[in-house]
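worker-03 picked up job from queue 'complexes'. Input manifest follows; two sequence lines, order preserved.
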Amino acid sequence: MKSLSRLFGVMALIAIFVVTGSVFAQSAGGTLTIGLAVEPISLDPAGGLYIPEQFLVQQIYDPLVAVDPDLNFHPALAESWEMNADGTEFTFKLRQDVKFHDGTPFNAEAVKVNMDRAALGTTPAAASPAAMVGYIETIVVDEYTAVVKFDSPHATFIQDLTRPWLMIASPAAIEQYGVDFGQHPVGTGPFMFKDWAAQDHITLVKNPDYAWGPEFYAHTGPALVDEVYFRVMPEPAIRLTAVQTGEALLVQDPSPLETSQMMADGSMQVFVFVAPGMTSHQMINSEKEPTNDLNVRKAMIYAVDQETIVQTGFYGLVPAAHSLISPSTWAFSAEANDLYRYDPEKAKALLEEAGWVDTNGDGIREKDGVNLHLEYTALPAYEEAFMELLAFYISEVGFEVNIIKLDDAGISDYGAKGLHSMINMSWISRDPSVMTYVYDSANIDGGNYSAYTRFRNDRLDEILRNAPTELDDEKRNAMYQEAQMIIMENAIALPIYSMANIYVGDLSVKGFRFDPEGYPYLYEISIATD
Amino acid sequence: MWNYLVRRLLTSISILIGVSIFTFMILHFVPGDPVRVLIGRQSVSPERIEELRQEMGFNDSLPVQYFHYIERVFKGDMGRSMKTNRPVFDSIMEQFPSTLKLALFALLLSTIFGILIGALSAAIYGSWLDRAISMICLTGISIPPYFLGLLLILFFAVRNNWLPSVAKTDDFIGMILPAITLAVGEGCWLARLVRSSIINELNKTYQTLATAKGNSPAAVLFKHVLPNSLIPIATAISIQSVYLLAGSVVVESIFARQGIGRLAVVAIQNRDFPLVQGTVSLIAVLYVIINTLTDLFYAVVDPRVRLT
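worker-03 finished. Artifact:
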């Protein structure tokens, strides 16, 4: 609860700065230096992966449809759109006054080029093809009308269009740069790409012609800062130091301890965004001994005190989680969220019931001479803050936990072979459909090999496969709520905390506001010169 | 002499072949399938995965893959990064100048510091100041660079704002803290070496003769003793230069500098085989070249070496 009240404090702060931001709108200009945690690989929307790319792609490109922080859709590059009754055809009327950074005009042909590219993806890891499943073609009706066709209903298409992977790039530049387009991005967005020195910096400059921002932006016309200078700083402590010394005005993912101190003394602005989507949770292997027993899995969930973990590991900067879906997500199931609370006695009782007793007094339960043993394959890059504590809580009720520290590649190798007892998972997304990536049983020994629970349930598979084509929002909502119940009732997810995007900013940074996925609108930010 | 040269070069080449085989093998024994890492969490059909494996040559047997790799390297093609799809050679050449600049600057600092402090220590051998210097040097050697780096940042950047902590790559001011972080350990190590080799020489009888001929103590130290202790010191410095190049990994991450150390770390995490091979080979080649040159330098200045 303490963390929640802090969170509201931050939100209030944000609100204040949003309001005061407009006062500073006159004193435009300057360079906004931002400390990035991870360097992007490619700034091609159709080639991009996840986190580091998303933030930058959103500055350089515009979507056809934009979404505001309250999740309402607004016209962006498309003035209006229409879906046919089957949900398979989408007609877009386009703005006629938009130019790419290279001076070429934006039109229906550009939409076609981009949709065709997105459907295939330009790298093996591209996120865009998943949003274009069933794509047939884009028809250029006239200069400013385009129709996108799918072979099956696509309930989430308008929502997908707001995400970076379907944003519109300049066809002329795509042709000019070919495979290197990701290093020379050209879009229609509020900022234009200037240069990129690998492992050092990426510079964007404001687009002076920008006049087509969506209506919910705090101002119109070009962006308020002249230049955005992204520095790649891999060390969390150094990112924070850079704000203290003034070498950066805004940094992402700072170290939690120092951030909580700065929050307390008010020397910096701290912005916390509790992300929708999948929480950071452990996917429990339902095939391997001993976690193939439902009671053992339930005991693991009851054994863990998430509230203490977030206080100790994250200094209360992020909220504890009790379900695999975060409360700010559409179709969040409160019922699934209420199933488990910290109760070590109940955990012990469940283990006794399952026949696991400590006969030799070493603190570890046995059955038929075998220890109650877990192989915890952990990725320190994400789990450092809590993995020891998590293992401690689980071992308190009589488990023997062996932490195997691996990198990303090692985790996916162990996971695909099913050698783990549990693997951490989290996925920021506004829509619960991301559950499909890791809970559809087709991904156990196929697909992306990331269904680490190795859990097979026909009803769950049916929901996860059919919900994306369900056009009735109410029915879709009910389906996802049911999916959350199936997963939590079967105790294959051990929730830990809700994902959060944290930014620390200098006091001169004004107009900071999060978009619905937790990235700041750099377009609205200005630097106060006092 | 020629005989020695040929033998030395053959040794170097065999070391390089060994390194390339070792790097190649070790990458294939680390858990993690490079194709899966490349795809991440996207759903990709087994056929497409097979296609990618075929394209990248992972379906061939290890020796065949290795020989293909060597064949390409001899044609001047180090391949493309699997992750960024940029040519490995370009990526390395873009990062290398920064590492080289930092290493050279750190080498300069550690050499000056090491020789001056070492010579001073030896001259006042046994005094309390000598013992104090020894203690300080021991601390300098023992302190890990990532901790020292943070201390320096805390003092020079956060508390006093005298120097930047993460300045741009081209900026000389921004190189001072990383270079000191790198140089302290090596400089202290060199100081101890200089001290002990000078003391070793001081105990020899020729300097009594030099003093008897009317030389001042300083002249004895700098004209006779120091030149004679130069051989082990020159070796130490040449070895240091390679350590400094390879040891830049931590410092580059802390100070957010460009460099091949950081490039290699990211490449290993991504199982980006071509890029790992490229960076590791570069460091190995530099190591071997510098060591070979050092050995040849010995052979030139000290005839005894040629016979062994």
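worker-03 released lock.
The mean pLDDT of chain A is 90.
Chain A has three domains: 16-37+190-273+500-530, 61-184, 277-498.
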